[in-house]
Amino acid sequence: MTEKVFLRPLPSALDEQSVVNHLPTVVESIRRNIAKIGERNPKIGTATHQWDYCDQFDWVSSFWTGELWLSYQMTGQEVFKNSAKLRKSYFANMLLDPFWLDHDLGFQYSLSCVADYKLTEDEESKMMALRAADHLIHRFRKIGGYIVAWNDTHPLGPEVTLGKSIIDSLQNTALLFWASEITGSPVYANAAKRHSETLAKHIVRDDFSTYHSFNFDPITQQPLKGETFQGYADDSCWARGQSWAIHGFAQTYLYTKDEQFLTLAKKLAKYATDHITDDGVPVWDYQLPSDEIQYKDSSAGAITAAGLLLIAQCIEDEQEAKMYREWGLYLLQGLMKQCDLTHDERAVGLLAHGASFVKVGLCDNMLPYGDYYYLEALMRANGYQNFFW
Ligand code: GLY
Questions:
Q1: What is the pLDDT of residues 21-62, one digit of tens each?
Q2: In contact, 374 and 26? CB cutoff 8 Å
Q3: What are the start-end ranges of the E strands in the chain?
Q4: Is there a catalytic annotation at residue 371?
């Protein structure tokens, strides 16, 4: 039994059935957009709810592909599979220039090649995903016990980035756990678990808020300090970062069955639900001063919802699980009421009001990762448990 962690009561009424019943509408919206999106990979929404598209190596390049594969898994309709398969050459080409690869290999290859292998037994995709896992494990620093997130070409400069771990990579470790399952070699899973332990120690604060990143000395590997890149301040709590941690540590629990990770995911979820505004859609940073513009981040809401529902699926105690499930549904209800675009036939994405990177002006857009996790969360709300993580 893990430690029980109680969440505050829901701020207002939940209509569970309407949330659960929304899944087919979302899948239909994805189907409707296949022809418009074609072979391109959505990057960020425009003011008219169209997409700007990814160049090569973009960390967001796989989320639309992930939506297609999940829709195929649910419906068996070839149109989803065929469109997802069209993207294989994009992911094959990316592996040809390892200089540009970074820790986001986990996002990129779990939702594309791992998904393809799991659903269609495509051997070529399996080998591509294993190759990606090999690149990812080379970023693991054995002395420091963490995965280096970015490359020396990052604007922060090599003296910082070569010793930098970031919270997002808790999602990327799924590729390593999968590689251990496929190859029978524990080295990938060991690195993934150690990375999670290191981040649990350094990136999570005593009150269960989180830093966006934690720096190590690139030479000695000594822990240095937490800081932010996309959050409001080094000591604030970037909402999407917190959501990566909630979903990521719950996922580490799924793979390792080590209860410390589930307990931690619950405490991080408690911090988030304690700080989410009562409308159920998070402001982009949980410690944003009240005199700043309170942009919402629907992607943080969707990832947190998926994480809460994943936690609920991991908890044995029925009453405790119900609390996490209801909070997950409540966040989905908030997204449905305030951000959902499925009623708009011209919109090529699912959710408005995502905050990609507020400090550079990307503060109110559709985001493909918001859309992907919205679908994942709605599927979890309907009892699905098979994903590509
Ligand atoms: N992985 C970067 C982000 O969450 O914006």
A1: 999 999 999 999 999 999 999 999 999 999 999 999 999 999
A2: yes
A3: 42-45, 51-53, 140-141, 146-147, 164-166, 213-216, 223-227
A4: no
pLDDT tens for 145-168 read 999 999 999 999 998 899 999 999
Q: Where are the domains of the chain?
A: 139-229
Contacts of 153 (CB under 8 A, 6+ apart): none
Backbone angles phi, psi at 276, to 5 degrees: -70, 135
- Ligand 1 centroid to 76 CA: how many Å? 31
Report the separation in Å between the CA atom of 316 and the middle of ligand 1, taken as the mean of its atom positions.
31
| pTM of the entire predicted model | 0.98
Q: Is the CB of 102 under 6 A from ligand 1?
A: no
Residue 360 CA to residue 347 CA, distance in Å, equals 24
Is residue 44 within 8 A of residue 306, CB to CB? The reply is no
Q: What is the DSSP string of 193-238?
A: HHHHHHHHHHTB-TTS-B-SEEEE-TTT--EEEEE-SSSSSTTS-B
Nearest CA to ligand 1 atom 1: 168
Of ligand 1's atoms, which has the minimum distance to the CA of residue 244? Answer: 4
If pLDDT is split at 50, 70 and 90, which confidence band does 301 have?
very high
Reply yes or no on whether 104 is catalytic: yes
Which band of pLDDT confidence, cut at 50, 70 and 90, is reported for residue 99?
A: confident
Inter-residue contact 87 to 41 (CB < 8 Å): yes
